[in-house]
Design goal:
Layout (H helix, E strand, L loop, with lengths): L1 H10 L2 E3 L11 E3 L1 H20 L4 E4 L4 E2 L1 H6 L2 H4 L1 E6 L6 E3 L5 H4 L7 E4 L2 E4 L9 E4 L4 H6 L1 H8 L5 E10 L14 E11 L4 H18 L7 E6 L10 E9 L2 E12 L1 H5 L25 E2 L6 E2 L2 E8 H12 E5 L5 E5 L8 E7 L5 H15 L5 E4 L5 H10 L4 E5 L1 H6 L1 E6 L5 E5 L3 H10 L1
Parallel strand pairs: 3-10, 20-21, 20-22
Antiparallel strand pairs: 1-2, 4-9, 5-6, 5-7, 8-9, 10-11, 11-17, 12-13, 13-14, 14-17, 15-16, 18-19, 22-23, 23-24
Helix pairs in contact: 2-10
The structure holds adenosine-5'-triphosphate (ATP).
The site of adenosine-5'-triphosphate has 16 residues, from strand 11, strand 14, strand 17 and helix 10.
């Protein structure tokens, strides 16, 4: 973990937020390379969830959330963690995360601490007009259910996907970007006929595990955990967590829950007219009936929902961890490589003029960079520092799949040298063939 954190700072992937003022715990900023990696991961999720399927729509809802949403969802009452104080050092911890040095000390009785951030809305600050920063993206998917059905004419089964920020006032944020107070989630709510929920749950567990493997995570490092007892959320009939071997231990990367009809049932009006199976709070505030008509029986049904919910930041950490490789070279030296899958690499190619500031070489390099950039596969850069060896090392370390060197042969014969990150093999190629090669690498 220490090596990863150091590399992330040195190369501009991830920084501690507000570092110049001493930092604020549990918050991180994504730098020039981090934002590319994160965007690529989100784009890959969106493509597989929305574009590659014919049964999912997208949504981007507000972060500030009406208190009623989080009242009826159960978050106001139950979104809590047990908090204890160490009487010796005065520090506070989540009950299950008391560090070794405080374990022998006297601790206070645990008390429930709500993890939601509350904020004032509008100019009057008397506590009467407030909203929450959403603790999960899911709730606004449920509250938009009718809007989306009405505007798209979807029938079951179908899903709604959303990527966005979520906020939790974690008692002890830790392990770099693993447990933070502001993070991003990629969530799908997949609505199904009651009775087909268990089958869909299994399908989604398989499909989500495969997606992480496709992002470069070794299959053997992901295990499935059947969540039971107190760990099972109040809304869930069954939850399977995808557990990944993070640098600090085996922990949750994504949870796939069968939320039954709890959420739509909880947010619906006229609940008595609907055959809601879950235990819900009576709702007199909602103005929408969140149900669909069964075309064969003409009866209203409240769909069950399967929710694959993944953390973007935990995904980035897992992917960095998988990609991080230290290789021994023939000359006895070492090289660090981030062996990202090409679609996730922050920079797709570096175009390097052999001699720094040689006008003809630099112009040719810029021209090639612009041609490749127009293919819209991601960021391409020109490295005009004149030190080929150092540039290769740098781009290995930030995971750039190819380096393309523009030299005097490029001017005389129209050829460039292409170097592969993983094999370090170099090949001479006609400059006209580079775009095709590039497309093969990133678009196939
Ligand atoms: P944990 O048990 O680790 O606190 P959780 O079960 O509360 O997680 P969920 O409510 O299932 O998490 O949230 C779905 C996903 O959101 C998690 O799988 C994780 O990837 C991500 N996530 C949740 N809390 C955090 C956090 N504090 N920091 C970063 N990512 C988070």
């Amino acid at each position: 973990m220490d090596d990863l954190v150091a590399l992330c700072k040195r190369r501009g992937f991830i920084f501690q937020s507000h570092e110049i003022y001493g930092g604020l715990q549990g918050l991180y900023d994504y730098g020039p390379l981090g934002v590319e990696l994160k965007n690529n991961l989100k784009q890959s999720w969106w493509s597989s969830m929305v574009y590659d399927r014919d049964d999912v729509e997208g949504l981007d809802a507000s972060i500030l959330t009406h208190p009623n949403v989080l009242k009826y969802s159960g978050h106001e009452d139950t979104f809590t963690d047990p908090l204890v104080d160490c009487k010796s050092c005065g520090l506070r911890f989540r009950e299950d995360q008391v560090p070794e040095q405080c374990k022998g000390e006297e601790l206070t009785e645990p008390r429930e601490f709500n993890l939601m951030f509350k904020t004032n809305v509008g100019p009057i600050d008397d506590g009467s007009s407030y909203a929450y920063l959403r603790p999960e993206t899911a709730q606004q998917i449920f509250t938009n259910f009718k809007n989306i059905i009405d505007s798209t004419s979807r029938t079951l089964p179908f899903g709604i996907a959303q990527i966005g920020k979520a906020f939790r006032n974690e008692i002890t944020p830790r392990n770099f970007i693993f447990r933070v107070r502001e993070f991003e989630q990629m969530e799908l709510e997949f609505f199904v006929n009651p009775g087909s929920d268990e089958e869909w749950h299994e399908k989604w567990v398989e499909s989500r595990k495969q997606w992480w493997v496709d992002q470069g995570i070794e299959s053997s490092k992901i295990s499935l955990l059947n969540v039971t007892g107190d760990d099972l959320a109040h809304y869930s009939k069954s939850t399977i967590d995808l557990m990944y071997e993070f640098p600090h231990g085996l922990e949750e990367l994504e949870g796939i829950a069968n939320r039954t009809d709890f959420d739509l049932g909880s947010h619906s009006k006229n609940q008595d007219e609907l055959d809601i199976k879950s235990t819900i709070t009576p709702n007199n505030s909602s103005n929408a009936k969140l149900a669909v008509k069964d075309i064969t029986t003409n009866k209203l049904i409240v769909p069950y929902v399967i929710e694959p919910s993944a953390g973007v930041d935990r995904g980035v950490l897992a992917i960095l961890n998988e990609a991080y490789t230290v290789e021994k070279l023939d000359d006895g030296k070492e090289r660090v490589v981030l062996a990202f899958k090409p679609h996730l690499a922050p920079i797709k190619a570096a175009v390097i003029p052999l001699k720094k500031n040689n006008n003809d070489l630099v112009l040719k390099a810029i021209e090639l960079k612009n041609t490749l950039q127009k293919l819209r596969v991601g960021r391409v850069v020109v490295e005009n520092t004149g030190n080929i060896g150092k540039n290769y090392r740098k781009h290995d370390e930030i995971g750039t799949p190819v380096c393309i060197t523009v030299d005097f042969d490029t001017l005389d014969k129209g050829t460039v040298t292409i170097r592969d990150r993983d094999t370090m093999q170099q090949a001479t190629m006609d400059i006209k063939k580079v775009p095709e090669h590039f497309k093969d690498l990133f678009l196939s």
